[in-house]
């Protein structure tokens, strides 16, 4: 017997993700991988979470294992609201939706805000997972000109912004570049978006992982009534729980809740209660600094290794937080081809092209520094630097 | 500052769910609620899950808290494949996708199979959560004629089936009716769907909760190569974990995986490992019979109470498994209006109309019997029966 499966147009347009294929390669233990987007498991507070789990299963086992409200576990929503207030963006708990990882927030925003052909403004480059998630709803991406500091707000003309369903921004230590948007640009961005009537979506998984420079106010704190904000416990606690949150104004908030109900009814009660139990007494205030210290050290190892091993023709970002460095090689170098050669030598990174919604720059690549030991960073960058030099020499010969 | 939020067409079409509003009312402790779709928390194996959680956090804490593959935790996928084989439907673990509750499976099927206006075949009535989930992708539902035994396969004409993207069926103890499709109809259904080239989606959260009658082969076991199957741990273990699975053939399987990656990257590693640890040594073989016993007893309490308190003009299903009884009142009785009166007397149920994709039957209602103690079933049915009698008397007077 046979069924004729007819895929939807959006499913036909789906292609297997570069990240997925790369992650498969990097599972081989001999590979030094700068390709991952994984936080360091050394930062997972296992003992604390074991205690929290124990307490949840002792004090409220039936509620923790039962269906729960779509909006999320009330004490956790209240915790998020308080945290946001501390960060300068006071919001009501009633505007906080707990989601199954902030990736789900992206899916829900795409569902509720994007029709086929809708204009969506994104950075150049932007987070690949967001581009993939929004793509399912068939938008037309408009790329905002960006430089090493983020969106070039001077280049945001009324024509570019006009009619966009939303603007998707990662102001803090963006994946993939690690860049942080300066304060003046934040203000300009919020003003220009408001003037054009374009909702601002601020995706902020790395905001608290700042190891250099000073804290900058988030877009939501510059625009508390109308901003849309996405946060995550993946980078400050553990990603295997899939727990994040979205803050949104009405009428969007109610639609997000309804879309979430259709998507998975609610985020697992069990993990919401465990996370709340873990963090409710201020645990993150002592825990996050230890992550910052580790990631700051790791970042400097890699920046030092880049200086030593990469040729002067290469440029890279110098992040003050987060997990990633972005490298731009001379025009003509194709990092997808470079990756094939790197993997032969058991080194991996992510080619930059998929992070561009339009006009991919094939000469860019993303490096993650958080999970690789210092000596492997050194060994891996040495190999990669030599490959880059050989590529550039090849270009010069061909010219 | 102001943002002009323009909702997508699909979000504009979203309305707040009847179930959601009803669940709010039933939170009041004085309400005897037959409205819930919740399994009985008395069946949650808390002690066993505490041990499993402990073991997971002792043996593999970092893997349990880290990102994982989109397809799911391999040992759990293998467990599902073995379980399916036991139930007569051998499938490869490579065709099993672990999802964040089977509700997510519905969302992913909608995403990958439904374009605006696509024909989707559903039962009359069908599961409300599925109708809502598919609706986001703007299908055109075609209702299959159904009776107290389920889909009337004689009424499935080639015209009705032609061009449908899929047929959505709940053959075992369907939500909302509790009915089970007889074997001959299962065979006819699979044959007719195959002849028309229509993929069959079998949603089976209640299949193992059979307390009367004999086990019937599932649609997948009648059509192992091409069938699409959805299973859940919500009703046999605990729903608060949000854990289910989808079995699908290629090329659909790969598209489901890609859509899931965009939706939430993967199902929480933590809960997948806990559930696998809980069930891997045959736990469900002793646990499920205890749920069957409880639900069977509860079902009979309610059937007895219906006999005693409901008027002869009312009809109801006599389930051999699952959690629900479906009541059909004389034409002219509007159960939404009845619900308002019932809630004044602190009794709740779910009006039947929202379960119909087309031509809602306002004289129907759904009763859940699993969480209400016997004496409250008696008291609640007495009140509800009196209200029903009064409604019918009112109809007769008006006529």
Describe the structure.
Two copies of one chain form a homodimer. Chain A has 399 residues and is an alpha/beta fold. Chain A folds into two domains: 14-43 and 285-398, Aspartate Aminotransferase, domain 1, CATH 3.90.1150.10; 53-281, Type I PLP-dependent aspartate aminotransferase-like (Major domain) (Aspartate Aminotransferase, domain 2). Chain A is built from 15 helices and 15 strands. The first copy, chain A, has helices at residues 9-13, 18-25, 46-59, 61-65, 74-86, 102-113, 128-135, 158-161, 183-196, 219-222, 252-264, 269-279, 283-309, 335-344, 374-398, and strands at residues 32-33, 96-99, 119-122, 140-143, 146-147, 150-151, 166-169, 200-203, 228-232, 244-247, 315-316, 324-328, 347-348, 350-351, 364-368. A seven-stranded mixed beta sheet of chain A has the order 2-10-9-8-7-3-4, sandwiched between helices. In chain A, strands 11-12-15-14 form a four-stranded antiparallel beta sheet. The radius of gyration of chain A is 21 Å and the shape is globular. The termini of chain A are far apart. The relative contact order of chain A is 0.16. Chains A and B meet through α1, α3, α4, α6 and α7 of A and α1, α3, α4, α6 and α7 of B.
What labels describe this entry?
homodimer, 399 residues, alpha/beta, Aspartate Aminotransferase, domain 1, Aspartate Aminotransferase, domain 2, 2 domains, 4-stranded antiparallel sheet, 13% strand
């Amino acid at each position: 017997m046979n069924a004729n499966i007819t895929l939807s147009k959006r499913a036909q347009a789906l292609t297997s993700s570069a990240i997925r294929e790369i992650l498969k390669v990097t599972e081989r233990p001999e590979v030094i991988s700068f390709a991952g987007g994984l936080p360091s498991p050394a930062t997972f507070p296992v003992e604390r979470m074991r205690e929290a789990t124990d307490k949840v299963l002792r004090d409220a086992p039936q509620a923790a294992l039962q269906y729960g409200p779509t909006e999320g576990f009330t004490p956790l929503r209240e915790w998020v609201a308080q945290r946001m207030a501390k960060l300068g963006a006071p919001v009501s708990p009633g505007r906080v939706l707990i989601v199954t990882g902030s990736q789900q927030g992206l899916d829900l925003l795409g569902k509720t805000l994007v029709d086929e052909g809708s204009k969506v403004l994104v950075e150049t480059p932007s987070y690949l997972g967001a581009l993939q998630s929004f793509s399912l709803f068939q938008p037309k991406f408009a790329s905002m000109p960006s430089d090493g500091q983020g969106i070039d707000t001077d280049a945001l003309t009324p024509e570019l912004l006009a009619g966009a369903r939303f603007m998707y921004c990662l102001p803090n230590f963006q994946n993939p570049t690690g860049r942080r948007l300066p304060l003046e640009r934040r203000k300009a961005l919020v003003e220009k978006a408001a003037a054009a009537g374009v909702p601002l979506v601020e995706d902020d998984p790395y905001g608290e992982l700042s190891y250099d420079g000073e804290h900058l106010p988030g877009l939501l704190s510059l625009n508390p009534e109308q901003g849309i904000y996405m946060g995550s416990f993946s980078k400050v606690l553990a990603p295997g729980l899939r727990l994040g949150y979205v803050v949104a104004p009405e009428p969007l908030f109610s639609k997000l809740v309804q879309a979430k109900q259709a998507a998975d009814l609610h985020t697992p009660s069990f993990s919401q209660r465990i996370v709340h139990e873990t963090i409710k007494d201020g645990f993150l205030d002592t825990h996050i600094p230890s992550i910052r210290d580790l990631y700051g050290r790791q970042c400097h190892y890699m920046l030092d290794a880049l200086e030593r091993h990469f040729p002067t023709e290469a440029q890279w970002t110098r992040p003050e937080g987060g997990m990633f460095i972005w490298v731009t090689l001379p025009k003509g170098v194709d990092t997808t081809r470079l990756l094939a050669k790197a993997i032969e030598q058991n080194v991996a990174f992510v080619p930059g092209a998929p992070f561009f919604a339009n006009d991919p720059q094939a000469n860019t690549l993303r490096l993650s520094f958080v999970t690789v030991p210092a000596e492997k960073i050194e060994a891996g960058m040495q190999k990669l630097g030599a490959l880059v030099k050989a590529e550039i020499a090849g270009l010069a010969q061909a010219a």
